[in-house]
């Protein structure tokens, strides 16, 4: 059986029994974050743009500040290297909207597939994602344009569809089978029809910024030399909000921080293709000195390069970059303009 | 009551007149984009009727055209420009003129009389282009949605006192009495024990993700190379130690209370006598940090202790590049 | 580089670390004179000689605090006596604005002092150093920077979220 119907309270109980750390969206917008559910705290009963925090969940497995190693120089000149701990408490992310849920597919394909990145892999192995169908799209959402939908379960291990006081729970992967077994015991099964029926309660399509995914990559490839990039980005201030807050952006910087002459550490921090120094080379040459070139990189990475390499877009349509861009630069507007849909 | 549709029409006339007569090559003005009532700064040249048609002035012109000038300085150098400014933008422009960052003779300044700004996200997206945007002493109205100034998202505008600056062209008339700079939020914080205050600010520093949006959007944060950045320098085996020494690491990339504090305190200090309290940094911060709580510490000193008026006149000396013999001395513990 | 705790301090109590930026033309000479005259004062300061108090960039003070100083002193020539005519006037405005900001975030005013001490005023130098060390001893270590708190929270949402 791959779907069951359980009362919402049962999910709360089953999660508490596992003893895992549970992270839930809390607060919304700039004042929100994915935070740990306190003991006895209630799980969210719905999700949507109104519960979406400005900071995405990627920080859980891809922290903004991560120590890769530390070193101490001993008296005899020997160097002692302290290894990094690529671990965290066993964690379940609960109630992520489909855009944030799907972000893990994009992150996994970049950081796990082919050649696993140890820092990410270590933590990712300890994370389970329980996605939730979205009941309220916001004015910046465009998940259906990027091949997702308010009820898609991509990236989730379990997917829940709230239905009154009940939850329909769908098993998507085996990663959370420990929890699934607790839920399944004695629960009413839900067949395909019941699942489709409750799915139907959620918005099928989001109508902001509609573009066709089909020929997008080809159209964008042709638009590489378009003069529109300049107009698109002339007011960009290179703040990087669009990439720091993007649930799928995963660029980082590595710096060695000397504490004193004898000890220090190597840090990994979030970086962004929007900073001019990002592509700065030691020779002082910078291939992306211009803002328009950096904006083009952001758009093409998401809608051309990543899809070519991994078969899905590196944008989940969450709309954060549009909403929080201080100067109203709209990635969907650029894609619609250059992707030939409008 | 002010009707921003008709004021926008007047603004369009002025802008197109300037371009037609060849008085300026380009104009920086706000236009409406996809996400109305949000606006964006746009560079408009002669013949760009498509953009000219969208030129707008409303309380949703929350971005700064001066930031646009700062960001595009190199590309616009030597061009004669028209620039549409609100009162706080004009103050910021004056600061940049004082510092010879821009040249006054290159600019034709079109001032819009501003009664305050409103956060576009708080209003529903208007359907159709002709939805009226109006305001009066009490608040802003878009179509049927009305909000008081107090809950329109811009706290700095409530205490803005700038008016009657002298731009070259004026659009609109004030429809509301301007406020006074007010430091109530500081007084509340300063009433706390130092230890408690440190905790309050440590929490603020801790949440910063170091995106530097506060710096980038600020119209007067205009250094070509920020001391906080690693900088564009080539370090090769042949780089002399003396050259390396010129680029010290003031704040490393570690996201810690201490390093974040170095960044935010340094910025606050460099804003002394330059911050025009436009509030854009606070509004842009993606994690919603109350940045005015820290910037106002220097703003308060500059305005109350030194009685310095920021950006009043392009001929004034910059605050930190001037002094008075009567400036106060350190009173030790009794500061 | 971090500021080392002085090892010569008396007893086992808290020994503050004070960084003193002192001007070559006045306070540095005063410190020298104080030494030659065998004036007693606590050994907790790390003196850094600069050519003028006008050279002190607020970032130097901020950095000193962030790297572990419990107190910072900047000392230059009396107004009107600056070797470079006006350096100390600029310094005064800049550093006292910084002091307002630091006091505002909860760094006690005793921890950051700006004084003017001429080459002849060895006793003033002794008094200022003693005062600042005693005051900072009473206040204890400066915790804002030194608690070494790294932003460990894995998601970076706001605390109250
Ligand atoms: S958020 Fe906007 S202004 Fe900032 S870098 Fe991204 S596109 Fe540019
Ligand atoms: S590119 Fe923008 S809309 Fe797409 S996932 Fe990233 S933040 Fe969301
Ligand atoms: S309020 Fe912020 S953005 Fe505005 S001038 Fe001051 S520091 Fe700059
Ligand atoms: S905008 Fe906010 S998060 Fe970004 S650097 Fe400034 S204070 Fe930090």
Your description of this structure?
The complex is a heterotrimer of chains A (342), B (335) and C (161). Chain A has helices spanning 8-18, 98-111, 118-124, 177-184, 192-199, 216-222, 228-233, 241-244, 291-310, 320-324, 331-338; strands spanning 3-7, 21-26, 33-36, 47-48, 65-73, 79-83, 91-96, 127-132, 134-136, 158-163, 166-171, 188-189, 252-258, 263-270. Chain A has 342 residues and is α/β, with parallel strands linked by helices. Chain A has one domain (2-340). In chain A, a hairpin with a 6-residue loop joins strand 2 and strand 3 (33-36). Chain A starts with a strand and ends with a helix. Chain B has 335 residues and is of the alpha/beta class. Chain B is globular. Chain C is an alpha/beta fold and 161 residues long. Chain C has a four-stranded parallel beta sheet, sandwiched between helices. In chain C, helix 1 crosses helix 4. The model of chain C is unreliable at 4-11 and 151-161 (pLDDT under 50). Chains B and C meet through helix 7, helix 8, helix 11 and helix 13 of B and helix 2, helix 3, strand 4 and helix 5 of C. One iron/sulfur cluster is lined by residues 217-221, 271, 275-281, 295 of chain B. One iron/sulfur cluster is lined by residues 208-214, 284-287, 289, 291 of chain B.
Quaternary state, please?
heterotrimer
List the strand order in the largest sheet of chain B: 3-2-4-5-9
Helix-strand category of chain B: alpha/beta
Pattern of helices and strands of chain B? EHEEHHHEHEEEEHEHHHHHHH
N→C terminal distance of chain B? 47 Å
Rg of chain A, rounded, reads 22 Å
Low-confidence stretches of chain A: none
Strand content of chain B: 5-15%
Rg of chain B: 21 Å
Could you spell the SSE succession of chain A in H and E letters? EHEEEEEEHHEEEEHEHHHHEEHHH
Portion in helices of chain A: 25-40%
Strand order of the largest sheet of chain A: 3-2-7-8-10-11-1-12
Average pLDDT score of chain B: 90
Q: How many domains in all of chain B?
A: 2
Number of helices of chain A: 11
Largest sheet of chain A: 8 strands, mixed
Say how many strands of chain B there are. 9
Q: Overall 3D geometry of chain B? A: globular
The percentage of residues in β strands of chain A lies in 15-25%
* Major pleated sheet of chain B: 5 strands, mixed
């Amino acid at each position: 059986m791959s779907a069951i119907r359980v009362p919402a309270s049962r999910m709360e109980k089953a999660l508490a029994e596992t003893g895992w750390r549970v992270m839930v969206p809390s607060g919304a917008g700039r004042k929100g974050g994915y935070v740990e559910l306190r003991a006895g705290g209630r799980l969210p009963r719905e999700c949507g743009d109104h519960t979406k925090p400005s900071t995405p969940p990627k920080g859980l497995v891809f922290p903004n500040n991560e120590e890769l190693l530390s070193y101490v120089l001993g008296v005899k000149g020997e160097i002692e290297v302290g290894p990094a701990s690529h671990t965290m408490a066993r964690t379940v992310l609960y109630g992520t909207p489909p855009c944030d849920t799907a972000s893990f597919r994009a992150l996994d394909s970049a950081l796990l597939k082919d050649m696993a990145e140890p820092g990410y892999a270590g933590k990712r192995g300890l994370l389970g994602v329980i996605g939730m169908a979205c009941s309220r799209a916001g004015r910046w959402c465009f998940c259906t344009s990027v091949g997702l939908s308010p009820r898609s379960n991509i990236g989730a291990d379990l997917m829940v569809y709230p239905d009154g006081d009940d939850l329909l729970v769908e098993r998507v992967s085996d990663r959370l089978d420990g929890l699934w077994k607790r839920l399944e015991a004695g629960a009413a099964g839900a067949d395909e029809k019941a699942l489709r029926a409750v799915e139907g309660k959620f918005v099928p399509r989001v109508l902001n910024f509609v573009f066709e995914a089909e020929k997008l990559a080809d159209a964008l490839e042709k638009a590489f030399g378009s003069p529109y990039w300049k107009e698109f980005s002339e007011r960009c201030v290179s703040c990087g909000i669009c990439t720091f807050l993007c649930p799928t952006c995963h660029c980082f910087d590595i710096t060695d921080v000397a504490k004193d002459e004898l000890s220090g550490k190597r840090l990994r921090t979030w970086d962004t293709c929007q900073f001019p120094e990002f592509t700065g080379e030691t020779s002082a040459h910078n291939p992306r000195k211009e803002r328009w070139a950096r904006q083009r990189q952001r758009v093409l990475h998401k809608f051309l390069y990543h899809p070519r390499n991994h078969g899905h877009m590196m944008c989940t349509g969450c709309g954060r970059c549009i909403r929080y861009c201080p100067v109203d630069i709209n990635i969907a507007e650029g894609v619609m303009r250059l992707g030939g849909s409008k | 009551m002010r009707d921003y549709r008709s004021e926008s029409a007047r603004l369009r006339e002025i802008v197109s007149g300037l371009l037609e007569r060849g008085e300026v090559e380009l104009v920086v003005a706000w236009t409406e984009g996809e996400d109305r009532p949000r606006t964006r700064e746009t560079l408009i040249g002669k013949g760009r009727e498509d953009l000219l048609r969208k030129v707008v002035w409303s309380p949703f012109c929350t971005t700064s055209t001066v930031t646009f000038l700062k960001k595009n300085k190199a590309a616009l150098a030597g061009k004669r420009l028209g620039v549409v400014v609100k009162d706080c933008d004009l103050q910021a422009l004056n600061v940049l003129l004082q510092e010879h960052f821009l040249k006054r003779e290159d600019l034709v300044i079109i001032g819009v009389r501003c009664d305050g700004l409103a956060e576009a996200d708080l209003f529903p997206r208007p359907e159709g282009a002709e939805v009226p945007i109006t305001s009066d002493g009490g608040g802003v109205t878009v179509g049927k949605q009305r909000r008081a100034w107090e809950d329109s998202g811009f706290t700095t505008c409530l205490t803005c006192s700038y008016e009657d600056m002298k731009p070259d062209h004026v659009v609109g008339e004030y429809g509301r009495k301007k406020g006074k700079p007010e430091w109530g939020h500081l007084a509340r914080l300063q009433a706390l024990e130092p230890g408690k205050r440190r905790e309050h600010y440590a929490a603020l520093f801790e949440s910063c993700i170091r995106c530097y949006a506060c710096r980038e959007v600020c119209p007067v944060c205009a250094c070509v190379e920020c001391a906080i950045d690693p900088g564009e320098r080539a370090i090769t085996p042949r780089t002399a130690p003396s050259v390396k020494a010129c680029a010290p690491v003031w704040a490393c990339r570690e996201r810690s209370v201490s390093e974040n504090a170095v960044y935010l305190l340094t910025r606050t200090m460099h804003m002394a006598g330059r911050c025009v309290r436009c509030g854009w940094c606070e509004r842009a911060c993606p994690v919603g940090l109350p940045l005015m709580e820290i910037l106002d510490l220097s703003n308060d000193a500059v305005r109350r202790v030194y009685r310095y008026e920021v950006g009043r006149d392009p001929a004034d000396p910059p605050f930190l590049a001037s002094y008075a013999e009567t400036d106060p001395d350190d009173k030790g513990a009794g500061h | 580089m971090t500021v080392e705790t002085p090892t010569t301090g008396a007893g086992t109590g808290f020994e503050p670390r004070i960084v003193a930026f002192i001007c070559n033309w006045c306070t540095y000479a005063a410190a020298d004179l104080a030494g030659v005259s065998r004036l007693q004062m606590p050994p907790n300061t790390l003196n850094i000689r600069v050519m003028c108090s006008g050279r002190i960039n607020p970032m130097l003070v901020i950095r000193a605090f962030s790297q572990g100083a419990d107190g910072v002193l900047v000392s230059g020539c009396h107004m009107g006596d600056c070797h470079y005519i006006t350096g100390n006037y600029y310094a005064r405005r800049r550093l006292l604005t910084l002091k307002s900001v630091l006091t505002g975030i909860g760094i006690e005013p005793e921890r950051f002092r700006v004084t003017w001490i001429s080459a002849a005023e060895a006793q003033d130098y002794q008094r200022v150093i003693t005062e600042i060390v005693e005051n900072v001893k009473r206040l204890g270590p400066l915790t804002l920077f030194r608690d070494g708190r790294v932003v460990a929270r894995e998601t970076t949402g706001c605390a109250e979220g």
